Amino acid sequence: MINIAILGFGVVGSGVAEVLTMNKEIIKEHVGDEVNVKYILDLRDFPDSPFADKVVHDYNIILNDDEVSIVAEAMGGLHPAFDFSEQALKKGKSVVTSNKEVVAEKGDELLKLAAENNARYLFEASVGGGIPVLRPLGTCLAANKINEINGILNGTTNYILTQMIDFGKTFEVALKEAQQKGYAEANPTADVEGIDACRKICILAAIAFGKLINPSEVSTQGISKIRLEDVKNAAEAGYSIKLIGQAKDVNGKMAVSVAPRLVPYTNLLSKVDDVFNGVMVNGNAVDDVIFIGRGAGMMPTASAVVADIVDIAGRPELKNQQWAKAERNDLACACEKVAKYYVCTKSGENAVKEVFGEYKALSDKDGEFAFITNEIKKADLDKLLEKLDVLSCLEIL
């Protein structure tokens, strides 16, 4: 029997316990042994739960029980989740997690600890919920040099943008509906300002390029300033606006960013709507590969956590990829990036013509002129935009 402990009995933790129970026989077939939930750590008691007798309040009970070989961390937040994971790995217990914040901030340290203590650290559920993307990126695509990753990594923002695109709702109205449906928190900052997507693209970039960039080093913009006028202009020109996390190899350096971008209808990511997530990976041998599915929710996320448990229980001898910490000289300067941009300005077409010369006009109404630039270096674009009264500026994917 393989004994595990679950840290946190909220949405994800309770889902993990449910999946392990519901699919007990299937999991036993994959592992070759029974996987048993021995402990559940939480500050609360759950007298009405079928797992009530497994709840403990002292982490040391789990830590000092040599029968527990795998810890499933489903607490959320950086601390004490990181501290508990660190302690478990030092004891030789493998750890699985859905905690994107811990992986994005401390993943390199925890992977190193796992290797030093003959344990494993897996986190498939930290990006894309139930979508299998991290393991395929690190194994199935291992024969490729990864050129670029673009991802719709946050279901809340994708739902809001879908409501704006398909139903003409303002950001404020769409956000309120997302909160009412439980897709967005009362404080939606982490979602709508791109913080959640930033952590996830950092994890994807680390798997692709072997170096973990701290989220604080990533240029991050959210969707709170997206206007309905921009959504309409984009649609008329054949684009959807999506919040895209991007990790790109630029001459051997990492260019990592999160921003709302115009995605052409010819790109499959433009069709990923509602609360769904999508990740497109470009490799030099395989070209484009896309992963689409539900990026959050109790059961999809729990499914990915349990898959990691099954992987470790069935193949404990496998080793993790190791990450270096990205240094400043590993990062490409955003100012050097070349792309096309959507711009909307109050300055009028004559002013745009004087500043840019060549461009593609999109719309001229209600005192706003929208256009698409030719390919231009970001640093040069910023200088030109200083000469205009700019309402919006979005990169085109």
Could you characterize the architecture of this molecule?
The chain has 397 residues and is of the alpha/beta class. The chain folds into three domains: 2-130 and 299-320, NAD(P)-binding Rossmann-like Domain (Rossmann fold, 3-Layer(aba) Sandwich), CATH 3.40.50.720; 137-294, 2-Layer Sandwich (Dihydrodipicolinate Reductase, domain 2), CATH 3.30.360.10; 334-396, 2-Layer Sandwich (Alpha-Beta Plaits). It is built from 14 helices and 20 strands. Strands 7, 9, 10, 11, 12, 13, 16, 17, 18 and 20 form a ten-stranded mixed β-sheet that branches. β4, α4 (81-90) and β5 form a beta-alpha-beta unit. α4 runs parallel beside α5 (100-116) and α7 packs across α8 (171-180). The longest helix is centred in the first third of the chain and has 17 residues, at 100-116. It starts with a strand and ends with a strand. The mean pLDDT is 96.
